[in-house]
Write a structure and sequence with these properties.
2 copies of one chain form a homodimer. Chain A has about 350 residues and is α/β, with parallel strands linked by helices. Chain A has 3 domains: about 40 residues, no CATH class; about 130 residues, Response regulator (Rossmann fold); about 140 residues, Response regulator (Rossmann fold, 3-Layer(aba) Sandwich), CATH 3.40.50.2300. Chain A is built from 12 helices and 12 strands. In chain A, β1, α5 and β2 form a beta-alpha-beta unit. In chain A, α10 crosses α11. Chain A is elongated, with a radius of gyration of 26 Å. Chains A and B meet through α4, α5, β2, α6 and α10 of A and α4, α5, β2, α6 and α10 of B. Chain A binds a DNA duplex (30 and 30 nucleotides) through α2 and α4. Chains A, B: Keywords: DNA-binding, Transcription, Transcription regulation.
Chain lengths: ~350, ~350
DNA sequence: AGACAAAATGATTGCGCTGTCATTTCCTGT
DNA sequence: ACAGGAAATGACAGCGCAATCATTTTGTCT
């Protein structure tokens, strides 16, 4: 025996709206989901009834019946990292006004946690998934490959993406920075990096390779730490670099926080930038170009990655197979400023 | 006539697990939700069956049947603002390992958009809601008041919170900063602020009031812009301030981006900080204390606000009415550093 | 050992919506 | 005016789980 009494606190359902409008429930459902296939007359009646009753659809019921939700999962390795807050912004701009909404999962640079989050997201039957790396666990990767929804991998362009991908060549970007230092006449460049996730490792490898090829490699000048990146850490790392290799004449920093920190440390030590020490940053968040001296940086298209990823995802959700360019290279740009111009 | 054939691609359901374990469906449900009330024997059988089948509960079905979800809605006015990324971090730390997950809504400093998001979140039957302001539209406020779930308002301590609140006295914090400038001997302080949302307005009002009381008020020194805050904007605002009132001897900045920008602009113009110009920042994100000179700042407990808010919310969800301290003042702290020490 | 309470388990029903397919209504051209 | 087809609408069942309440099992006390 169930409660028959529909208390007034219960919110109205589709059926209530249907009764009010004098149509069937399914017509109400269609008016909401695909107004195009409902006659103008019926549509007006239904819309009026919805307004009168203050009806809002129940997403849970819809998800259960249709076996899919309006959720788009976004997996990021960090929430504090400025890189991802820019990506996030691009993504949010892209879902504005659509019926989808974004749910963020933070796997804190742990592939295992990422795997758990993938599993968790998939159990919710998401409309699509955006993941921020190519470095899943084997299981995580398999989950993505067999996911019943479109998947976009972002940040990098590399072989073997699961399906769609948007990013740029991170290794070429680092090389461009290093080459710029060389072209500016620096001959003893160092490399500063925190939080050695796989991507940071690869960038370091790219730097070493370039430096080696240019005859500028010196392992004493490669300073890394597993700890998170921060402005303070940039100062520490430069300090360590200069104590190990005082004749270092430039640094390539693995992100802007480190570069700003290094610049401040140089200021503190009265080391002239760019005269005695060149600094090249990576990512180019807004702050970088307002430093004194303004920081030269490899600018990465973070926000564009976010907005492009969501655009591809939405297109593919609406119309599976319609996205022809499934691998998008957004490139990068060298922003040459004062911190490396010593001529 | 419905599909009777259960294709192998269908994921297993509660009933499948029950059959496999030789118990009833509801026992499986209980094993998952409240293992305490199930016998050890049954629990083991069920857990084993779940593992064998690789069962994952369907959140949509659960939400529909139980009329509530595991979603916690978090409304923030901005995603790029460092303030909220710290709050976010606190919140995410707090939900780690619980069965809840956070969904973010960005209302971009628009109370109207906020209202829409409140409505949207509520339609999902969330387990709880965290909102970042006290400045809802009347309708938005009513929605929160009648929400069928706990609500925490964060960032401010003020009369008339809807229910629970966590924050600090933003006005006292600004006054403390202004007073500090006065105590350092500055007599012609200015005020820099971007993105004039209601909270920024109130802080400006608090500054004016204090300055007036101290006989230091000069409206030429109050520089604001409706545009978003950024490091670059800090530079512009200082430029404008100095052209309007060249004898200004200190600035109170409404956040760290502006303060860093102002500092850089001062450097560029060879204005000695703190000698010729004192700078006091607001919020104190990590970068502030690593500037040269290190920035004096009013430190706000952003991350603590996030973790405390989620803790209160979870406690209230588990056990309605159990949170006795429904209004928490986390205070603030003056971080006195080089940018104001001119003695 | 028997009585009783407490703990554990189960059968049934419905949450609110959408997929499927059948039926009705509308429109077009001759 | 009427056939034929397209467009619009509706009836019905079921998505997977949890609330309810009834029933069975277990434990405890005298």
């Amino acid at each position: 025996m169930a409660r028959k009494t529909k208390t007034s606190s219960d919110r109205p359902t589709l059926v209530d709206v249907a009764r009010e409008a004098g149509v069937s429930a399914i017509t109400v459902s269609r008016t909401i989901r695909s107004p195009g296939i409902v006659s103008d007359k019926a549509r007006r009646k239904v819309e009026e009834a919805i307004r009168r009753l203050g009806y809002t659809p129940d997403p849970a019921a819809s998800a259960l019946a249709s076996r899919s939700t309006s959720t788009i999962g976004l997996l990021v390795p960090s929430l504090t990292n400025n890189v991802f807050s820019d990506v996030l912004r691009g993504v949010y701009e892209g879902v504005q006004g659509t019926r989808y909404f974004v749910q963020i999962g933070n796997y804190r640079y742990s592939a295992l946690e990422e795997e758990g989050l993938i599993r968790n997201f998939l159990s919710q039957r998401p409309a699509g998934l955006i993941v921020s790396s190519m470095d899943q666990t084997p299981t995580g990767r398999r989950l993505l490959e067999t996911a019943p929804c479109p998947v976009v991998q972002i940040m990098e362009i590399a072989e073997g993406a699961v399906d769609m991908s948007v990013g740029f060549d991170q290794l070429a970007a680092v090389r461009a920075g290093a080459q710029h230092l060389q072209e500016c006449g620096y001959r003893r460049p160092g490399f500063l990096s925190a939080r050695m996730d796989p991507r940071a490792q690869r960038r370091l490898a790219a730097f070493r390779e370039f430096a080696e090829g240019a005859g500028m490699l010196d392992d004493r000048r490669i300073i890394t730490t597993p700890q998170p990146s921060s402005v303070g850490m940039g100062g520490h790392l430069l300090e360590q670099l200069l104590s190990q290799a005082p004749d270092t004449d430039a640094v390539m920093c693995n992100n802007d926080d480190l570069a700003v920190g290094a610049l401040m440390e140089a200021l503190r030590r009265h080391i002239a930038v760019p005269g005695q020490l060149g600094i090249c940053s990576y990512n180019d968040i807004e702050m970088a170009r307002h430093m004194v001296p303004a920081l030269t940086a490899v600018a990465t298209p973070r926000r564009e990655i976010g907005s492009r990823a969501i655009a591809m995802l939405l297109a593919e959700i609406d119309n599976p197979g319609s996205v022809t360019e499934r691998r998008v290279d957004l490139g990068f740009e060298m922003m040459i400023r004062e911190s490396t111009s010593r001529r």
